[in-house]
């Protein structure tokens, strides 16, 4: 075997080893791009169809009513988990305020790990759409609800079961095409 014949396999292995990091990078980049452009906004929740967790949260300072499990039975309602430090919560707040002004559904809030003064300033600045707000200063109730992060919005049926969960801030499209159709269907079922 000549020196030239022995050099060919070494050259091929060197090329393969050099190309391997580029191939791995391309595969990772493709996965990230798929995730970036995948338009599926909903995350699966094991809570859908289950009773809401047992909880009893005190009100945020300056509010009269906290929020508990018993407050969420008897009518279809929304529960919005929010915080003053949450930038996306600011994005959806005008729509929550607008929805609350229609009176079409009760809206309740769980204020997650917030300073009372900051929560009050947030509501004073952006509006207060909530019938009741529970202060979840430890984050325990939010964990029991299966909250990934704020904001998250739940549709609760009149029997106190979670019917729908929206993760992240909602916009007008997701409010009108995802959340409100569930609310209306449940309200019709309740009235039947």
Q: CATH homologous superfamily name of the largest domain?
A: Glutaredoxin
Reported CATH architecture of the largest domain: 3-Layer(aba) Sandwich
Radius of gyration from the CA trace? 25 Å
- Biggest sheet statistics: 5 strands, mixed
Folded structure, characterized:
It is a single chain. The protein contains 5 helices and 7 strands, in the order αβββαβαβαββα. By secondary structure, the protein is of the alpha/beta class. The chain folds into 2 domains: 38 residues; 136 residues, Glutaredoxin, CATH 3.40.30.10. The strands form 2 sheets. It has a 5-stranded mixed beta sheet. It has a two-stranded antiparallel sheet with strand order 1-2. The termini are far apart.
Topology:
Elements: H1 3-37, E1 56-57, E2 67-68, E3 77-82, H2 87-102, E4 106-112, H3 116-126, E5 132-136, H4 140-145, E6 152-156, E7 162-167, H5 172-191
Parallel strand pairs: 3-4, 4-5
Antiparallel strand pairs: 1-2, 3-6, 6-7
Organism: Sulfitobacter delicatus
Domain Thioredoxin: 46-188
GO molecular function, one term: disulfide oxidoreductase activity
